[in-house]
Design a protein that fits this description.
The complex is a heterodimer of chains A (about 110) and B (about 110).
Chain A lengths: L2 E5 L2 E3 L5 E8 L7 E7 L5 E7 L5 E3 L2 E6 L4 E6 L8 E8 L5 E4 L3 E5 L2
Parallel strand pairs in A: 2-11
Antiparallel strand pairs in A: 1-3, 3-8, 4-5, 4-9, 6-7, 7-8, 9-10, 9-11
Chain B lengths: L8 E4 L5 E6 L11 E6 L6 E4 L13 E6 L2 E6 L8 E10 L2 E4 L3 E5 L1
Parallel strand pairs in B: 1-9
Antiparallel strand pairs in B: 2-6, 3-4, 3-7, 5-6, 7-8, 7-9
Classes of the chains: A mainly beta (about 110), B mainly beta (about 110).
Chain lengths: ~110, ~110
C-alpha cells in the first residue's frame, strides 16, 4: 500500500536552515509528482511549490528536490522565521493537483 | 495567490445534508476542472474525498458529492453521520503548475 513518511522536523532557531524528508513506498515513486503542504497551528492548509518528475523547484526560501533512486522527496527551508512554524505534509499527486495520499506530517517549530 | 473562500463553519443534524461552498476566480476554480476536496479530522492528515469537481475516489461513500458553477465549487455531504464532523478544504489548480487551498470549513454534526 502507498506509504509516505516525513521526517526531519523539530525545534529550530530563527535564521537557521532545515531539510525535511519524505520516504515513499508502495508505488513507483518516479512516476508521480509530489507536493509539500504545510499547516500552521490552528490554521488552514497551504500549498508549497511542486516538483514534477525531475529537477528542483525553488521559490524564495523553499527548495524542493527529489531522489528517485531513494524514493525520497525533500524540502529545504532557509532563513527560517517564526511564521514557518507548521506541520509539513508530503502528498502524492494523482494528476493536476489531486493529492490522493498524504503522510502523517512532521512538525517544525521555529523558536529561539 | 489568495486562498479560496470557504465559510468558516457549517452544521447539520444526523441524516441531514450540508453544503460547503468554495469561491475563487476565473483563474482558478472557474478556469479548470481540477477542483478537489479534502476531509481532515483533528490531529490527522487530510484525506481526499472529491477530485476533478465531482469524482469520488474508491472507498469514499456516495454521500459525498461535488459540483461547480462558474467560480464557485460546492461539496455536499448527504445523510450526515457523526464521523463526518471534520474540517473540509477545497483546492484548485491555478495554472503553471501552481495550486491553492481554500480557507477551510468546520462541519459540526449537531
Amino acid at each position: 500500500q502507498v506509504q509516505l513518511v516525513e521526517s526531519g522536523g523539530g525545534v529550530v532557531q530563527p535564521g537557521r536552515s532545515l531539510r525535511l524528508s519524505c520516504a515513499a513506498s508502495g508505488f513507483t515513486f518516479r512516476s508521480y509528482g509530489m507536493h509539500w503542504v504545510r499547516q500552521a497551528p490552528g490554521k488552514g492548509l497551504e500549498w508549497v511549490p511542486v516538483v514534477w518528475h525531475h529537477g528542483d523547484s525553488v521559490r524564495g526560501r523553499f527548495t524542493i528536490s527529489r531522489d528517485n533512486s531513494k524514493n525520497t522527496l525533500y524540502l529545504q527551508i532557509s532563513s527560517l522565521r517564526a511564521e514557518d512554524t507548521a506541520v509539513y505534509y508530503c502528498a502524492r499527486d494523482w494528476g493536476s493537483g489531486t493529492f490522493d495520499h498524504w503522510g502523517q506530517g512532521t512538525l517544525v517549530t521555529v523558536s529561539s | 495567490q489568495s486562498a479560496l473562500t470557504q465559510p468558516p463553519s457549517a452544521s447539520g443534524s444526523p441524516g441531514q445534508s450540508v453544503t460547503i461552498s468554495c469561491t475563487g476566480t476565473s483563474s482558478d476554480v472557474g478556469g479548470y476542472k481540477f477542483v478537489s476536496w479534502y476531509q481532515q479530522h483533528p490531529g490527522k492528515a487530510p484525506k481526499l474525498v472529491i477530485y476533478e469537481v465531482s469524482e469520488r475516489p474508491s472507498g469514499v461513500p456516495d454521500r459525498f458529492s461535488g459540483s461547480k458553477s462558474g467560480n464557485t465549487a460546492s461539496l455536499t455531504v448527504s445523510g450526515l453521520q457523526a464521523e463526518d464532523e471534520a474540517d473540509y478544504y477545497c483546492s484548485s489548480y491555478t495554472g503553471s503548475d501552481t495550486y491553492v487551498f481554500g480557507t477551510g470549513t468546520k462541519v459540526t454534526v449537531l
